[in-house]
Amino acid sequence: MLLYFVSTLNFFQVENMEIRSANKGGFIALDDIPNMKYTAKTHIVVVWLRSLHNDPDHYDDPLNFNPDRWDKPAKPGTYQVFGGGHMICAGNMLARLQLTIMLHHLSVGYK
């Protein structure tokens, strides 16, 4: 629907660029949304999960491969593998089913 209102899309783009420049090139944070003029409070804001998983505030050196980081559980809300809400990955239940089947065969076939 917004495709037909190019001027509205331009307002969104200008507003987003202003906020990003105020954040020194960072992402738009949840605290920025009430200050936005053109983004309505009823709009759905989607979190870019890659930015959440690569946040150095949550993980030490997030771009390095370090399996030891999973020795302690992640902080709640900082690890969203399959997304959440109405944007949840359709493969979530398939992955759980495959893990269940693999664990079954592993435990039954173990000698």
From TrEMBL:
Its cofactor is heme. Keywords: Heme, Iron, Metal-binding. Heme binds at C89. InterPro entries: Cyt_P450 (IPR001128), Cyt_P450_E_grp-I (IPR002401), Cyt_P450_sf (IPR036396). The keyword Metal-binding applies. One of its GO terms (biological process) is sterol metabolic process. GO terms for molecular function: heme binding; iron ion binding; monooxygenase activity; oxidoreductase activity, acting on paired donors, with incorporation or reduction of molecular oxygen. It comes from the Eukaryota. PANTHER family: CYTOCHROME P450 26 (PTHR24286), CYTOCHROME P450 FAMILY PROTEIN, EXPRESSED (PTHR24286:SF12). This is Cytochrome P450. It comes from Eleusine coracana subsp. coracana. The lineage of its organism: Eukaryota, Viridiplantae, Streptophyta, Embryophyta, Tracheophyta.
